[in-house]
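Minutes, methods subgroup
Present: GH (chair), OT, SY

1. OT presented the first of two proteins processed in the latest run. Sequence and structure tokens recorded below as shown on screen.
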Amino acid sequence: MTVAIFSAVLLVALFAAMAIGVPLGFAAGGVASLLGLIHFGPEVLPLAMEKVYGMAVNYSFAAVPLFILMSSLLERSTIAQDLYDALQQIVGSVRGGVALVTLIIAVVLAAMSGIIGGEIVMLGLVALPQMLRLNYGRNMAIGVIVAGGSLGTMIPPSIVMIIFGLVGGVSIQKLFAATVIPGLILALSYIAYVVIRCWLNPSLAPAKAADPDGPAMTPGRLFKSLVPPLLLITLILGCIYGGVTSITEAACMGVVGTLIFIVLRGELTASLLHQSLTQTLRSVGVLLWVTFGVAVLISVYNLADGREFVNSLLLDAGLSPMMTIVLMLAIFLVLGCFMDWIGIVLLTIPIFIPIVNELGYSPVWFGVLFCIAMQIAFLSPPFGSAAFYLMSVAPKGIGLMDIYKSVGPFMAIQLAVLLLVLFLPDLALWLPSLN
């Protein structure tokens, strides 16, 4: 069996298994194992398992469940709710203030946990009913929630960046530093869009959004609402960028800091802890099975000279180096319509990163482009995961098509930022140490 036929059979079998409902991890591992047995014999399985073991014992991988646990704890405490109330009092008098507060909260939550699912659920529960009650334009309100809640991909400590760094062999600290400016550009672009839309069409948002029925925001309550999130962000990012701890140790400190604040607020209960740990276990279980399954697939495919086949396919296509990068981004965007980011990074990055290096581009810059592409993928129909997260908590009357109709302007902003970073790499490689 030639490598071209092997590639075609592997691809068709993988998508066929997924089409009949087999989860990605089991589909990838099962198809790869079966083809490996047929093509190489039983001796291929220990080689594939060695790859799985190497990923399982990677110390940096422990940061993933810790950040997921931190996000689960924050989701069930009132830290985010109090922060929202405080910022609403500060920015509430501005037209479209609740939408602006929602985007600011999204940036803060992203900097605290790096998980998009929890952010969207939190914002959908807290901010969406408030905006609808105040007669905000429904499409803009929904778009702000899903786009803002997806910022966890771009703002450190992003789980997407951690997995990309582990799979691609790229420094996670450098990835975190490189995404700061593009992430802020993306967030500020969302804010500018809301301000401009509300200025051009005042009917989309009321001039004042303060809740007269809400509790008064005294200086003491303001302090209590703002200090915990800011301290958590400073603790996590300060330890990482200051070189005090590794990513994993910073994640552990973030979990401990979150638990301390929950205890001080009198919110720690057995139920809260149980639900947070259960959600973390489920999320990590899915992530690990996908990781192990795709690791087996990549190992078997590389053994069949698949990496060299893809390299020659892309490098010998007669495309310029920049057009080759554009083709890779197009593959990300197409896969993002049908597949979760975990599968995309595990399937493509081990193959694409050597090509990026051979073309002479920075893998850190490519990692930033990948994260922006995943921002677009989170919102892309028909399987954009952000829409399904919001659907789980959306008020009655809001369906999946309503959400997809709302994301168009925000996807256009994401695409514009992707092109901006593509043609202006210094936006990502702004520090000399990142080159």
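2. SY then presented the second protein from the same run.
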Amino acid sequence: MTEPLNQDPYSPIACARYSEYEVAILHRQKLHLRWHEGNVHYDQVVLPLDLKTINHEEFLVCRESQGETLSIRLDRIQRVEPA
């Protein structure tokens, strides 16, 4: 999962949701996420590491259970729960 090539415009997320990601990063709280990239849907537990902005798009940088680092565009995350 890397940064997409602007197939669809970014839709900003609610500030409260962004704050939830910040708190999870600070507390090293694993999250159970469901998100999509194109027609592919993902459902994984990840460890959030950071938030970043690239070309006016916001991403959650996280590590999956196998150790791979992912960058997930925030507006593609459909569900978030503490793991």
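Chair's summary of item 2: The mean pLDDT is 93.
Next meeting: continue with the remaining queue.
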